Amino acid sequence: MLLGTVNAFVKRHDLIQPNQTIVVAVSGGPDSLALLHYLCRIKEEYQLKLIVASVDHGLRGEASHQDMVFVESMADQWNIDFRGTLVDVAAYKKQTGMGTQEAARTMRYEFFSQVMKEFEADKLAFGHHGDDQAETMLMQFSRSALPEAIHGMPVKRPFSDGQIIRPFLCLTKGELLSYCSTHHLHPRFDPSNDQTDYTRNNFRKHILPFLKDVNPKFHEHMQQMSERVTEDRKFIENQAKQVLKTMKMSGEEGGFTQFSKTTFQNCPLALQRRAFHLILNYLYGNQIEEISYLHEEMFFHLLQEQKPNAMLNFPRGLKVIRAYDEITFTFKANKESSNFTKTLYIGEQVSLPDGSVVSLELGESFDGQGKYVFICDSHHVTLPLVIRNRQPGDRMMIKGMNGSKKVKDIFIDLKTPARLRDTWPLVTDRDGRILWLIGLKKGEGCTRDPSGTWLRLQYENNGET
Predict the structure, then answer these.
(1) What one-character-per-residue DSSP string does 210-244 give?
(2) Any known ligand binding at 161?
(3) Is the pTM of this model over 0.70?
(4) How confident is the model at residue 465 (pLDDT cuts 50, 70, 90)?
């Protein structure tokens, strides 16, 4: 019955193909010993090459050394290649600042990757079973409210130059112990698995037994849930990647992402949530533990609130900025506004702090005006012209208006992002009269009674004219 269950599971998930090389992670415990025995039973059918890999973490002294000696003896008895190693977890913890379990796992996986490369292996097989899966998912439930965090262990996933596979996720711990007994296998037992110092052991000893009393097939339900969640998440993720294609994204100088709030909110909420996490994965390289359900709630509150300009501070210096309809994720620190003043004479050009250029020329006539071109008659302007950022109290005369209007109010009316206002360039004549709020508003009062001699201002930035 057990063999048939595993064979069906292996075929359903396409875990093993003929003529493959499989590295088997064996600790000497019942799960991994049963896995090695199972793979030996199907070895001829699939024409497999097996390699046993074992790691002594050096955490239990002579006992853990004897575990690896036992594994090596079993590999020799079954005529299988063996690779074992002793790692210094304590030293690695000190070097990296990791916890014991994380450091041990990192070193263990590094060794497995080396063995896979040595033998050009296709698969790395683990003996994780259905109870392990249930424990993992229960722990994920208890630690996070994010659906992305609750997925369990994948049946297979890419690793090194091949894949990790877990053929025993369809079985319980009890079934594996019975298997070992039936086939006269004598595994070694790690006493630390009975201690409750680790969170997983508490779930194993206190919570999972209760749930299995309620439903003996609890492990099957959790495995089915893991598979369905994985499939659903994969579909939503592919859809969310299409949403990201509508955004401006750059990995340079710390990275940034920019998009329209309106366009983003037109997507279903599930896609918005997944796109939010994909953006964070892109910017951080990988999701980080500091990002929680709270940060997601903060972001969606930012989208909904009425204030047109707002900012959130996320971990590691990431800022989420709302400026009207524009949403920006950026690591660039907000620099204090730097005042600038540039004097511009006829036939010259000046460069502004952001790399843009303003030029001035004189002529008898000029055809056409655009967003980044300003023309006025020369006799009503006092030269030289001045290019500067705004100052408190700035006002300008606007065509069609009686009197003047505050530059601050123009910015607000035109929904100019607050972060851009203090460094936005404007042009005045020598007397301080504002002629042009570049790219936004052109002043009135300098084109009356033209003499036929005109001034033409041209603004250029990133090729935009």
Answers:
(1) HHHHH-TTHHHHHHHHHHHHHHHHHHHHHHHHHHH
(2) no
(3) no
(4) very low
